[in-house]
Amino acid sequence: MRIKHQKKIGMIIIVLVVFATAIGLWAARTEDRAGYRFVTIERGDIESVITATGTLEAVTTVSVGTQISGIVAELYADFNAQVKAGQLIARLDTMLLENAVEDARTSLIRAQADERLATADMERATALRDQGVLAPADFDMKRRALETARANVTSAHTALTRARQNLGYAEIRAPISGIVIGRSVDAGQTVAASLTAPELFRIAADLAHMQIVASVDESDIGRIAPEQPVRFNVEAYPDETFSGETRQVRMQAAIQENVVSYPVVIDVDNVDGRLLPGMTASVEFVVNTAHDVLKVSNAALRFRPTDAALAKLSASNAARSRSRNDGKAVDPARVESAQKRSGSSTRAVLWSLDDKGALMRLPVRVGITDGQTTMIEDSRVAAGQRVIVGITQGEAATASANPFQQPRGNTRGPRRGGF
To answer: Residue 316 above 80 pLDDT?
Structure first.
């Protein structure tokens, strides 16, 4: 009994497969006879997005350099090292700097001795002047010598402070807490701080919160706003999509090959630490979203019938108009003009076939697009309805298959954005 039951199930499956194949072949032959290619209107969700590329980086990155020249004596931090603010991460050779401090201290001692001598001379000169035995010019010279000695002491104090400060600069300390993401020197290497401070380390403050700086074309920048949801992918994890949020649209325009773009900063959470600085991100800004709506392929909105098909359709419409108006001919152009004046015009047209296989015009309103499909709305269309996207027979099909052939009429696709 089981074998017979299995045979019966197998026969049913075979019959169903043959029936489905026959239906598919019949539909294909129907399309071939009509000379058109079709797509089906679907119902689902659609998103309008703006694509861009950017680079992942830390929110705060500090370049650690040195204000003095010298030889790197020791390194206390390496790549990926966690450091605290004020922590010693490198030290330069201090022998010359210590000698400079001793020279400054000796100069200060000499200046102080000169000041004491000038002070004693001034006291004697004051006594002689009071007795009337010292000329005023000689007294002025003594006073000038004292003032010069005091100024030399002040200068020597400044030189000693500078020498001690330079000695302190020999110790390179972390300015912020974070992780070392770059090291540009090795122990024994000489660094020269002449006009600019050479970079020794690069420290990122917190890689748990990162940012993407994406370059957005000027034609799309008007639809970018703060707190806008963002999706992005990186090549390291091609099967995973990450999320973020727009933080800032910077006004720092960049022009490259006559193309203007603007940097957009995106906040990204990186608690698990998988995203690394420098990764290239393919970004999608979600501009608008529509749920459970009718949508159709953009190719259907771009389709235009041949001149012969349009002429046949106009003749058929004129015949029906004469029958509805007791034989009086009605100009289809006048009818369409009246519809436009009454506000019944639409933003796009779909084409299909009626029950008799004749070409049928379906005006629709279009909404947002994701670049492949577009949201449509009209009471005359429904999910599952087939509309024309191309021609499969005749000279028109040959022309439409040519990628260098421009289509007739309005070649622009549906407008991006809402209704």
So the answer is: no
